[in-house]
Amino acid sequence: MKLLILSILIFATSNQINAKIYTKCELARKLDGTFSRNKLPDWMCLVKHESSYNSRTKGPKNKNGSYDYGIFQINDKYWCKVGSAGGDCNIDCGKFLNDDITDDITCAKKIFNRHGFEAWYGWKNNCKGKSLDAYSVTECF
Asked: For the purposes of burial, counting CB atoms within 10 Å of the CB of 100, is it exposed (0-12), middle (13-18) or buried (19 or more)?
């Protein structure tokens, strides 16, 4: 019984143990070139409020039954599919739950190009129309 409980605890915490938590500057340098530098404070604010800079975040169930995945909290109803490639980004949502955020960035760019920052509630509720001084990245370059 003790072994079973220990196994469950190890499994349940393994994603968090191996998660990549980015610093603001690390992430800013990773996004620089893909996104305009003057928009990086918006991206930093968005990611802070969507995933706390954690590459392996899976959000709780949304009201419509969908889930959000990865550092940008990309939704499985539209952008990815669970278990196989699919959605508008043609990717398995599980690929957003690792430390390589290259595919996350590619999909986030597609979402942004289609909907702007309005696609993310984390940005709309916490960043839109607010001072982004705390998310400035000038010291990162």
From this structure: exposed
